[in-house]
Please model this.
Amino acid sequence: MIPREHRLRSRRPLPGATRDRDGYVLHWRGCGVMGVINVTPDSFSDGGRHLAPELAVAAAREQWAAGAAWIDVGGVSTRPGSAPVAPEVEAARVVPVVRALRAAESGARISVDTSSGDVAREAIAAGADLVNDVRGLRDPALRSACAELGVPAVVAHLRGEPATMQDGPTFGDVVAEVAEELRAARDAALADGVPDVVLDPGIGFGKTSAHNRALLRATALLADLGSAVLVGASRKRTLGDVAGEPEPERRDAASVAAHLFVAERGAALVRAHAVGAHVQALRIWRWLDG
Ligand code: HH2
Model:
């Protein structure tokens, strides 16, 4: 199978991107890995591991050296039932890490996992290249931060809020509804001047295992919406339930399996904690398939 080609536009210089009339465009083929760095005390699989900035930066540099295409730095857990965190606290967690990572690895592509316009602005000033919003850029302040600063965004699907998202999520046709809501969110963001959008079905965000399964199986349909698709199944509860592994940190083989499945169906990026294992698996799969 010939791997899909993907592109991401930015109006700011982006490591690895080429210049064109409207700004900068990053091209890649096949599926890349976005490494997860949670600068939080309470993330569901790695909470507290990287709360000290120097540990977060060291882990991020390791992920970059292992072949990550992006490093996603987040300062708030969005696990089911998680509580909101003040933007000042969130910024104090992520901004020093983004700044230090940019200083240490000038070629790294850095994403900031936030739903706050203020945090996004500070992180971009510190060197972030992409905004990753699990709430799908529904806050106009975040949309305008991306638009004014010329930074693309990941628009993930989430109805409601993490605190209550797993309280009986219901869909008629989950694939059709998520695709339509993502398309509408993307079009609203582009109309507001966000330079480009990556779409994400929001695995585990207000969805049952059956919903997650249907969405993972529908990756090709989501990719046909015409934007790069990111999938974040890493260590999530659905995988633990199916694989019979209650401990999130022991779900990396399950994560690699799910992510190879979506890579084969056109995902442009997978968001993963175990970057080295994912990069190896994708390289072998591409070698065998290519
Ligand atoms: N999942 C998490 C966080 N951010 N961003 C995108 N685009 N897609 C995802 O699926 C996604 C995401 C949750 O995982 P994690 O960051 O490991 O946990 P926590 O939210 O507890 O920090």
User: Anything to note?
Assistant: The chain has a mean pLDDT of 96. The first strand starts at residue 5 and ends at 10.
